[in-house]
Design brief:
Structural class of chain B: mainly alpha
CATH class of chain B: Mainly Alpha
Number of helices of chain A: 3
Number of domains of chain B: 1
CATH superfamily of chain B: Cytochrome c oxidase, subunit III, four-helix bundle
Largest interface: A-B, 58 and 60 residues
Structural class of chain A: mainly alpha
Helix content of chain A: 55-70%
Strand content of chain A: under 5%
Strand content of chain B: under 5%
Order of helices and strands of chain B: HHHHHHH
Order of helices and strands of chain A: HHH
Radius of gyration of chain B: 21 Å
Helix content of chain B: over 70%
CATH topology of chain B: Four Helix Bundle (Hemerythrin (Met), subunit A)
Oligomer: heterodimer
Shape of chain B: elongated
CATH architecture of chain B: Up-down Bundle
Number of helices of chain B: 7
Number of strands of chain A: 0
Chain lengths: 108, 226
C-alpha cells in the first residue's frame, strides 16, 4: 500500500449506502420475522427447524452484509468472518458426532 | 477544517485515515467473532440437550409468550435500522440527525429490555427459574417428560437470553457514550470510526437474537404460553 499524503486523501473511502437500501433490508427482516412465526405454526415435522434456521440465516446474512457493511469491507475482513463461521460449524459438527453416536457401539 | 480534524484524529502509526479506519473495523470484527464463539458454546449446549430431550424442550418452549418474543424481534430490527441510519448520518456529517437516530436506537433497546423484563417476571412467578424453586407440571404423556429435562431447557433459556440482555445493556451504554461524543462534536465524515464500531456491536447483538428467537420460542407448532 502506498503512503498517501493527508491532503490527497482526507476521508476514508467508506461507502455511503443509500437510505432506501437500508429501508429495504429492514422490510425484508420484518417480513422474515413474520414468516418465521408463520412457519412455526405449520407442522412440517423435522423440517420446522430447517425452515426456522434457514430464515434466521438469511436474515443474519442481510444484517451482516448491509447493516454491518461486510459487503463493502476489505477482503481480509470477509475471509476472516467466513473462516470464523466455518470454525463454529466444525466445532458444532465435532461435538454432535460424539453426542449423536453414543450407544451406537456394538461392543457392549 | 476537515483537514485539521483528520490530522488530529490520525494516529502516528497509521499511514492514512483509510488504513486507520480499516484497522479499527477489522479489530472490532475480530472481537465480535470471539463473541460468536462465546455464544457458540451455549448454542452447542442447546443443540446437544435439544437432540437428547426434544419432548422436554417442546414443553418448556410452550411456556414462552411468542407474541412478546416476536414483538421484541421487531423492536430489535427497528433499532438496527435506526443504528445503521445513525452511522450513515455520522458518515455524511449530519451531526444532529445522528444524535436523534441514536437516541431512538436507545429507546428501542430499552423497550426490548422492558419487554424482556415482563417475560422474566412471568417466568419467575411461574417457578420457571432453574433451582430449588423450580416447578414444572408436565402434560400427561406417554412416556412422561422428566421435569428435570425441562429445567435444562429453562437453564439454557435464562443463560442465553440473560447473556444477550447483558450485551443489550452494554450496547445501550456504548450508544450513550457515542451520543455524548456526538454532542461534543467529536465525529466528522473524516473520523467517525467509534460510531461505526459501536454500530457493528449493536447489529451483532441483533444477530444473536435472530437465532435465539426461533430456537427458544418456536420449537414446536403447538403454541401455548401466551
Amino acid at each position: 500500500m502506498t503512503r498517501r499524503a493527508a491532503d490527497e486523501h482526507i476521508a476514508p473511502e467508506s461507502h455511503v449506502i443509500p437510505i432506501s437500501l437500508y429501508v429495504v433490508i429492514w422490510a425484508a427482516l420484518m417480513v422474515g420475522t413474520g414468516l418465521t412465526v408463520f412457519a412455526a405454526s405449520v407442522d412440517l415435522g423435522i423440517f420446522n427447524i430447517v425452515v426456522a434456521l434457514l430464515i434466521a440465516t438469511i436474515k443474519g446474512t442481510l444484517v451482516v452484509l448491509f447493516f454491518m457493511h461486510l459487503r463493502y469491507s476489505t477482503k481480509l475482513t470477509m475471509v476472516t468472518v467466513v473462516a470464523a463461521i466455518c470454525f463454529l460449524l466444525i466445532m458444532f459438527s465435532l461435538s454432535m458426532t460424539d453426542y449423536l453416536t453414543r450407544g451406537w457401539s456394538t461392543l457392549h | 477544517m476537515d483537514l485539521q480534524v483528520a490530522e488530529h484524529a490520525l494516529q502516528h502509526h497509521f499511514a492514512d485515515m483509510e488504513q486507520q479506519q480499516e484497522t479499527s473495523t477489522f479489530g472490532m470484527w475480530m472481537f465480535l467473532l470471539t463473541e460468536i464463539m462465546f455464544f457458540g458454546g451455549l448454542f452447542c449446549a442447546y443443540l446437544v440437550y435439544r437432540s437428547s430431550y426434544y419432548e422436554a424442550f417442546v414443553e418448556g418452549s410452550q411456556k414462552m409468550n411468542i407474541w412478546l418474543g416476536a414483538t421484541n424481534t421487531a423492536v430489535l430490527i427497528c433499532s438496527s435500522l435506526t443504528m445503521a441510519l445513525g452511522v450513515r448520518a455520522a458518515q455524511t456529517g449530519k451531526k444532529k440527525l445522528m444524535v436523534v437516530l441514536l437516541l431512538i436506537t436507545i429507546l428501542f433497546g430499552l423497550g426490548f429490555l422492558g419487554i424482556k423484563g415482563v417475560e422474566y417476571h412471568e417466568h419467575w412467578e411461574n417457578h420457571e427459574f432453574p433451582g430449588p424453586n423450580f416447578h414444572f407440571q408436565t402434560i400427561d404423556k406417554t412416556p412422561p417428560v422428566d421435569p428435570q429435562h425441562t429445567e435444562i431447557y429453562f437453564s439454557l433459556y435464562w443463560a442465553m437470553t440473560g447473556l444477550h440482555a447483558l450485551h443489550m445493556i452494554i450496547g445501550v451504554g456504548l450508544v450513550t457514550w457515542i451520543i455524548l461524543g456526538g454532542l461534543a462534536g467529536a465525529y466528522t465524515p473524516a473520523y467517525f470510526t467509534p460510531v461505526e464500531v459501536v454500530g457493528l456491536y449493536w447489529h451483532f447483538v441483533d444477530l444473536v437474537w435472530i437465532y435465539l428467537f426461533p430456537l427458544l420460542y418456536l420449537i414446536s407448532k403447538k403454541h401455548g404460553g401466551g
